[in-house]
Give the backbone structure.
Amino acid sequence: MANKNDFTPEEWTKVLESIMVAGIAVSAADPSGLWGTLKEAAASSLALAAAKRDPSSNELIKAAIADFERSDEGRSSILAMRERFAKSDPTECVQRSLASLREVSAIVDAKAPDEAAAFKTWLRHISQPAS
């Protein structure tokens, strides 16, 4: 069972950021204005809450959600994302997001091989555009 202790601080930060980066990639790929962005944020929040309550969520997912929801960890991730994507056009946001997600994929494959597939599926799920 993987958790924060299985990762370096830098790796864990990237894992936490991947929760937002997945949504950024989708939002930037299909900009839908303010209403669409709000709907996507709400859908992502609901997906986080659902995974937190789901008894079948693996330890890596639960650990990432717990740290992401902590005010200091979440705030740091949000500030880092704001800085990283502030002056990027949508195409650049998508490219940066995908590069970041590939890096996180390699990290979880190496550090949490038994939970990596479920974690990546979960990221894909929370990034799905709202309907």
Remarks:
- The chain has a mean pLDDT of 79.
- The longest helix spans residues 90-111.
- The chain is about 80% helix and 0% strand.
